[in-house]
Amino acid sequence: MSRKNRHYNYADVRYQISGTMQCCACGKKITEGPYRYHETADAYVSCHRACCPDDPKWLAMDQAEQESNERRRLFEADVLAFYDKWGGLDDDDFMSIVAINR
Ligand SMILES: [Zn+2]
């Protein structure tokens, strides 16, 4: 498989451990933070994010996370504004209104 077409997976040590977790670039063990890996016939080959910073996927992932955080922040602000105005309501009421009108 050519390097260009290699399929990388992106993960973080907090959530996922893949194979030996030995970085293929610096040779050190990956013990924290983000990393990428790809599968070969007999192993997972991992690489620290810091050891492959030119991979454009990292930037795209950062942006997606920022957008997700921003969306969450706006959502929470709306929820609190709604709550301040109307108080709590049960989900059935909320969803039946949406179901009928949307
Ligand atoms: Zn490394």
CA-atom Rg in angstroms: 21 Å
Oligomeric state of this protein:
single chain
Which parts are unreliable, with pLDDT below 50 for 5 consecutive residues or more?
none
Ends: how far apart?
A: 49 Å
How many runs of DSSP E, i.e. beta strands?
3
* Strand composition percent: 5-15%
Number of helices: 2
Write the element-wise H/E pattern from the N-terminal end onward.
Answer: EEEHH
Tally of separate domains = 2
State the shape: elongated
Main sheet characteristics = 3 strands, antiparallel
- Backbone structural class: alpha+beta
Q: Can you list the strand order of the major beta sheet?
A: 1-2-3
Ligands bound here? zinc ion
The average pLDDT value, as a whole number, equals 92
State the share of residues found in helices, binned by percent. Answer: 40-55%
Structure, described:
With 102 residues, the protein is α+β, with helices and mostly antiparallel strands. It folds into 2 domains: 9-51, no CATH class; 56-101. The chain has 2 helices and 3 strands, in the order E-E-E-H-H. It has helices at residues 56-86, 91-101; strands at 9-12, 34-39, 44-48. It has a 3-stranded antiparallel beta sheet with strand order 1-2-3, with no helix packed on it. Strand 2 (34-39) and strand 3 (44-48) form a beta hairpin. It starts with 8 loop residues before the first strand and ends with a helix. It binds zinc ion. Zinc ion binds next to loops. Zinc ion is lined by residues 23, 25-26, 28, 48, 51.
